[in-house]
Design goal:
The structure is a homodimer.
Chain A lengths: L2 H23 L23 E2 H18 L3 H17 L11 E2 L5 E3 L5 H17 L2 H19 L19 E3 L1 H16 L4 H16 L12 E3 L13 E2 L1 H17 L3 H18 L11 E2 L13 E2 H18 L2 H17 L11 E2 L20 H17 L9
Antiparallel strand pairs in A: 1-2, 2-3, 4-5, 6-7, 8-9
């Protein structure tokens, strides 16, 4: 494998393609914030704004500033999104956040889930790391505590939305909650260093909760579980495996393993990664499938055998991080393989960026999109910047004529 | 075209394949009702029951009894589903119905929409036509009136669920409501003949409401509209066209046109049909696409360029009904063409019935399913029984040796 070329390709994609695509096409100079519903050419096809994406964009552009030094364009993007969030995306009546707002920031939809809050939290945590502004740390801590409180006691949620399911019949819980909280906890600890030991305790507790979603016989992670920690296999809902989600989880766990100095957790994370990757791999068409049933029965979501960009960025992020943590060459080889598939299928050589959604055969749905309520400058930039960082360590070897 | 062979194929599919598939695999002899989450072979992959499907199944099997005479297996299926609905699927606290329940009938989810109620209503209306039992007519009338009341005044809804959208920013309405109510009104009028003139007035009002969803320049039906009847094109939501839904609407309107003796409405229905069909037709792979954007921009639903079974049954139902109402050969030719595509792509020659969900290229998603929370013995049987009825009129010509 030619690490030099791989690193060059990753770096080039990050700085010459993906970052400029979003700064040029997404930033809303009039109202602030970012539009993420962008078509193949980068033109806006929907002016509704995703609150998740405001937080994720702010987080990622502050992270770039932290990693590479402050670039005024990156900081403008991050500042614009975080101000848009603070001005328009919080429901003052209860402090919970919206899910979508109009271009001008008027609220369209507010959902029960705490994901808007999670991205708001990591955005402010990173802003504190970049700027040292204590008010951002305070906001991050407030929302972090709110999320934890709702997680520990759903009835404490100030948003009194009608429950989605009738819990007296079947009370369930979702892997997404402890998983996203673990990642947020890790990022909080990076920013709020003086409270690190508190975050470590919370992370350990979340990891224990996450383990309950693992199916013992197969080692696969299930997306849903009964509240009493039992599986429920009579319903298709209880058997959903989302390989991309499990793969993303595996590197959240790997990050935590290194942070918590827990070598067994790193082994466990590797095992979760391989089980999920091998289960999700599409032997027929290449790439990784979106949803699968634990027992290989049909999956209700129509789109279950499509190929989604983020599933592939998460496999790449996991592969490069596991390589970094274990130095096993097999991860570098896997990175190379998935990167090759992604460049051949997701990357748009004509207009830049990656297509979001491919049919199973690897062709983009038509008309294709580059952005969406759920796709903005996040997964791909996170993967590329982490890969650039890790690969650059490999090429910074002393000059040696024996190599030529 | 060989009408005799076409009729034979339709009749054979209806009686030898589709009906037996559901009676054999779906009927829950223990708890009553029907399981519709069936895999390729007809095995149950999820024991959660869809309330929509209990109502639709009862409706369709009573309809078969009405059309072909009472068959004890059909009546058992219909009776079992309607009893399951009455016993388990109504929330006694407010009279609204659930969306999903367990195998035993314990409530899992209750949604805001009135579709469970709509299928319950038509099931009882048909049961009254088959059995003459006045209590069914009364139930149908009660739920019909409840739906109309909620449609006319959403605040009168006894189910006080948190609104999905923040209406102070953008208050929208959906084509699905007046459309389903029009079909239910038509079926109510067939059963409740003494109140026919009342139903006619309501149908005329609903047709006026439906017309507001039409986009003047293209003649296409939009799925969503602002409450003040204006379009909203700045959001992708305001531009969604669902060709299959528009095609289904076109034959609801055609039925009404004949019923209301309104030849202009029939012309309008034909125009809606052709505009939707030509817009949805996939010139590249054949079949009809699921969602399209009015201005051909990207559609947010990942599955937008998939092929769904019901879109194709509705095109077939529309084609055969328009043929019946207009005697234009072009509809018979179109029926033949779409039936051929469907038999080549949706029909499973190995295990019977139709695959529910195909990728754009016409191959089923894998693992494929025959049933689903949204797919049961309804669209396909409705299409086949209507086609059988109409085609049989064409072959019942006097015997004539000149033809041989």
């Amino acid at each position: 494998m030619d690490i030099l070329r791989l690193h060059f390709s990753v770096k080039n994609s990050l700085f010459q393609d993906i970052i400029p695509f979003w700064i040029k096409n997404g930033l809303d100079k009039k109202n602030g914030g970012i539009f993420t519903c962008l078509d193949r050419k980068g033109e806006i096809y929907s002016y509704d704004k995703s609150v998740w994406m405001q937080g994720r964009t702010a987080y990622i552009f502050y992270t770039l500033c932290l990693q590479y030094g402050i670039d005024p364009y990156w900081k403008e993007m991050a500042d614009s999104c975080i101000c848009f969030l603070d001005k328009y995306c919080i429901d003052d009546s209860d402090g919970r956040m919206y899910f979508t707002v109009t271009a001008e920031g008027k609220p369209l939809r507010k959902r029960r889930y705490i994901f808007s809050e999670s991205f708001y939290t990591i955005a402010h945590a990173r802003r504190y790391s970049v700027t040292g502004d204590k008010s951002s740390l305070e906001k991050a801590r407030n929302y972090y505590n709110l999320m934890l409180k709702i997680y520990d006691n759903p009835e404490s949620d100030p948003f009194k939305i009608t429950p989605k399911f009738i819990s007296s019949t079947r009370e369930t819980k979702s892997l997404a909650y402890p998983m996203i909280l673990l990642n947020v906890t890790y990022i909080m600890a990076e920013s709020d260093k003086e409270n690190e030991s508190e975050y470590k305790d919370i992370a350990k507790r979340l990891i224990r909760d996450i383990r309950k979603f693992r199916h013992e016989e197969t080692g696969l992670m299930l997306e849903n579980l009964l509240s009493n920690d039992e599986h429920f296999f009579e319903s298709a809902t209880g058997r959903i495996v989302n390989p991309g989600h499990s793969i993303e989880l595996s590197w959240f766990l790997a990050d935590s393993a290194v942070w918590l100095e827990d070598p067994n957790l790193l082994l466990e994370a590797e095992d979760i990664f391989w089980k999920a990757y091998n289960f999700g791999k599409d032997e027929k068409y290449g790439g990784i499938l979106y949803f699968k049933d634990l027992f290989l029965k049909p999956v209700e979501a129509y789109e279950h055998d499509m190929k989604l960009w983020w599933v592939h960025t998460e496999a790449l992020t996991a592969a490069i991080k596991f390589y970094d943590y274990t130095k096993k060459d097999t991860y570098l080889e896997l990175f190379d393989e998935v990167y090759d598939y992604s460049n051949k299928n997701f990357a748009d050589t004509e207009y830049g960026e990656w297509f979001g959604y491919l049919r199973r055969d690897g062709l983009p749905t038509e008309p294709p999109c580059k952005g969406h309520t759920y796709k903005g400058p996040f997964h791909l930039i996170r993967m590329l910047s982490e890969s650039e960082r890790i690969l650059s360590k490999l090429i910074k070897k002393p000059f040696n004529c024996d190599n030529y």
